[in-house]
Amino acid sequence: MRFIRKLLLLASLFALTACGFQLRGLTAPLAPLPFASVYLDGQGSVMSELGKALARDPRLTVATSAAQAEVVLRLSDEASAKDILTINRAGRVNEYLLTLRVTAELLRGGERYGEPRTVIVRRRLAYFDSAVLAKEEEESFLWRDMRRDAADQLARSLAYMKPLPAAAQQSLKPAVPRDAQPVR
């Protein structure tokens, strides 16, 4: 009986590895990144998680200065919100909706490389007046998890960045007034 249990456990482990099962977050991005080194520029709570997510890729070097890097990843916006999702009949909060929005852009040689990426992560937080301290701890855990999730999503999306077409790059530059252009 014991032998059969061990044999079934071993067979199920082999079946899991044969189908390509891997634990989340333990591998490099599936697609290779279009650059070999990156410098992280910006402030915010997601920066350290983003550095950890990018450092997992052995093909990528996270540079300590912009001059050493092939590209610069700038976090241009990070916003968090805690909104009331539902209330009970007594008018007390029943659930909150936690939202984290992160926008990042990639720069190569001072020019924008691809469109800015925005990641939005949402979580529900049930709330009980009787467990205030426990819910504060749960909220703190959820914010940490959301930052990690946003960083992983940004790191994965970098593999699919494509350079902007030349016409789009030109449209980003300020337009010259018509009266300032030379007449031909």
Task: Please provide a brief summary of the model.
With 184 residues, this protein is α/β, with parallel strands linked by helices.
Q: How is this fold's topology laid out?
A:
Blueprint: H1 2-18, E1 37-41, H2 47-55, E2 61-62, E3 71-87, E4 93-108, E5 111-112, E6 117-126, H3 132-157, H4 166-172
Parallel strand pairs: 1-2, 1-3
Antiparallel strand pairs: 3-4, 4-5, 4-6
Helix pairs in contact: 2-3
Structural write-up:
The chain is α/β, with parallel strands linked by helices. It has one domain (25-162): Lipoprotein like domain (Double Stranded RNA Binding Domain, 2-Layer Sandwich), CATH 3.30.160.150. It contains four helices and six strands, in the order αβαβββββαα. It has helices at 2-18, 47-55, 132-157, 166-172; strands at 37-41, 61-62, 71-87, 93-108, 111-112, 117-126. Strands 1, 2, 3, 4, 5 and 6 form a six-stranded mixed sheet that branches. Helix 2 (47-55) crosses helix 3 (132-157). The longest helix is centred in the last third of the chain and has 26 residues, at 132-157. The radius of gyration is 23 Å and the shape is flat. The N and C termini lie far apart (94 Å).
